[in-house]
């Protein structure tokens, strides 16, 4: 039997295990349950079915007698089984005659739930992943194996995102059975957990929380841990004890599983945000230069010949935690979208790389845009507890120059990141000298051939003899040759400064009377090393 194929009997155990009697049962199996299932296919009632030998077919949208023709076709093509809702005695007879196993799906069960379990049992990637699940099913199964319990992963609204298969009958208690069948914790039980303080502890700590057995409520003992990123509670991993006690290191395993789940849940939020705004992909393409201006204008409803302005925002990454940073960018993008839409009818927002941008067509004045940037940065701090830098770039004459407008905002954010600009929010026009200076310094730092060896030797002399000639020359140049002002800044006597400048000239042979020499010294003496 191929590695990706399993006997139908084994697959049905996986389908039924996690929820007691399961979301699916056998309605007719004249040929037995030993035939192999090699693939899971979802049948679209609007399309001609494409059936392969060994298929398990999920007849979504077909009920009762309406499924009879599809059941016959499945049997003729060699399918192993077909699952339907609303089976009947007549349909069972059709299935027996066609030589295909008929499976009945419970009315309250969701098709994506059945598909996810079947794909997991076959250890294959689904044609269409279960909503917001992905590798979380694999994580749930691995955690279940290591803890010896039944695992479910939920978001912060107690919606079930993924869960493990059970290892035997009667392993699931009433709470787990109802949660998985409904893909959400039943409110009656959730209210009790809130009353017991369970959710408060899950929200506010990263420690494992134990919920003791309550036979009167049909609840077995379970452990839970909150999934957190950047101080935010994203969801919970639950481990329910079955007929045997949990493994000795179950709590340690659960903590590790929460850390692995963090990035999955962060990216799930990011996907949801991206799907909520279908224009974001077009905006990002326009900002990045991968979509032509006229094509983007048609998609976004913008006038391609009107001026544009780009505002850029970046979360100050004080903690190098990938999941926390990704969550912060997602939440920032959502916040910026709301504020921008409230201020400007033609505002378009999209994240691009680590930053979030606002594209304004027919923009307001720079002063107004700068005020908006301040508001957004303040809101991010007040509502999301994020320190955000904001930049307003130079306006561009048309949509075709969007990339240049975005790059001008990036220049400000880059300067802020390196300390060249101390303000948290600024327009390029306000800080252009600082930005240009930082860019020139970066260019010189990249090209070591653009150095004067005499200045390098001066720095080396200071290091070897504990002198301060280089810094004294730089202070004098910054003061435009005003010896008294430079000496005061260095807290030395003016005559001491005059001596140092003269001595620096003697050691290097540099002529301080030459303006080009002074310009190069002012630039090069600022470079590290």
UniProtKB/TrEMBL annotation:
It holds the Pfam family HTH_30. Gene3D superfamilies: PucR C-terminal helix-turn-helix domain (1.10.10.2840). Residues 471-526 form the PucR C-terminal helix-turn-helix domain. It comes from the Bacteria. InterPro entries: CdaR-like_regulators, PucR_C-HTH_dom, PucR_C-HTH_sf. The lineage of its organism: Bacteria, Bacillati, Actinomycetota, Actinomycetes, Kitasatosporales. This is Transcriptional regulator.
